[in-house]
Fold this sequence. Notes:
The chain is mainly alpha-helical. It has 3 domains: 1-35, no CATH class; 47-150, Orthogonal Bundle (DNA polymerase, domain 1), CATH 1.10.150; 162-301, Intergrase catalytic core (hpI Integrase, Chain A, Orthogonal Bundle), CATH 1.10.443.10. 49% of the residues lie in helices and 3% in strands. The protein contains 16 helices and 3 strands. It has helices spanning 2-6, 17-34, 57-68, 72-91, 101-108, 116-132, 162-170, 177-191, 196-199, 231-243, 268-281, 294-307, 312-319, 324-327, 335-340, 351-360, and strands spanning 207-208, 213-217, 224-228. Strands 1-2-3 form a 3-stranded antiparallel beta sheet, with no helix packed on it. A hairpin with a 6-residue loop joins β2 (213-217) and β3. α3 (57-68) packs antiparallel against α4, α8 runs antiparallel to α10 and α8 (177-191) packs across α12. It is globular, with a radius of gyration of 26 Å. The termini are far apart.
Amino acid sequence: xxxxxxxxxxxxINLPGKDKITLRALRLLNNFFKGxxxxxxTPLKEYRFYTILKxxxxxxxxxxxxxxxxxxxxxRYKFWILCRYDNFLHDKxxxxxxxxxxxxxxxxxxxxxxxxTSYKSTVREMLQYLFDFSILGKDLSPYVLKxxxxxxxxxxxxxxxxxxxxxLLGAIDRSxxxxxxxxxxxxxxxxxxxxxxxxxxLSLRHIDWERNTVSFSQYKTDVPLQYPLLSSVGNAIIxxxxxxxxxxxxxxxxxxxxxxxxxxxxxxxxxxxxxxxxFRRSQIQGWQxxxxxxxxxxxxxxxxxxxxxxxxxxxxxxxxxSSTESTKAYVKIDIDRLRECSLPVPKLHSHWYIEGKEDAK
Length: 361
């Protein structure tokens, strides 16, 4: 009915105002019939499948959820990757059966691919699924070449000093309800090193006001974590609850203030936008050339603790790592202490070295 009346079902872009209202009403009615929460807005982009994937992508995603235990965010990301892969093949007037190593490499090397490893693992797993369930007569997963192994910590992480963190917090206007929320977001990332996925899910039930603790299981690792409730954080939470947070919401502390999504959970990209906006208002020099999201504040917390002589075990506990091996990646931040471990370069007395030096002259 929607396709007949408006010409589409998912994408509201370039529709006349009357058709947008019709589409919006039909999608809300569909949410009601399915017992789903009402969506905040109609998607602006439609994800269509044209190859054989259109008949099997949803069963594959259900298999990923039930058998692999992937989280909803991972499922959505895989759906998006497979849609781009499907459209890539469709644009070349090909189907899955025509896949070759060269064709796959062309897709993975295209400008639309940001993370080759994630793209390759998803496409490889999908092709393996199609073969295992006899949808394809040939296993095409070997046509997705594996990426060479590289260290995850090749680059030196971005960090900010304690003075810069104070400047960042001081740049936020706390006189408005939204400003009180943004201040709390940046404070949680700076004082506790909390990930964006944990900030958006922080709930009133996670706070024990009598014992002055904040306890929750991390969304990424499911490892339980407990912080002391710092006075700065506790006061910021109370200030936001009393003078900023919308009243008609659940027990999640940090919520949206926008008219359409008022009172609903924020997304993790929104947390990044809040931190970036705080950097933009601050007087920190050169922040545009550095990473400036919530994770940079997490690295900064580890860096400043290292400078104060805090041990690995304490830092590992504070960051919620299940092993100190994960914390060792932060060693490269403390350049001054690494210099203390450096060894002098020995003089070489090799015949080949001297001969090479003379030849160079």
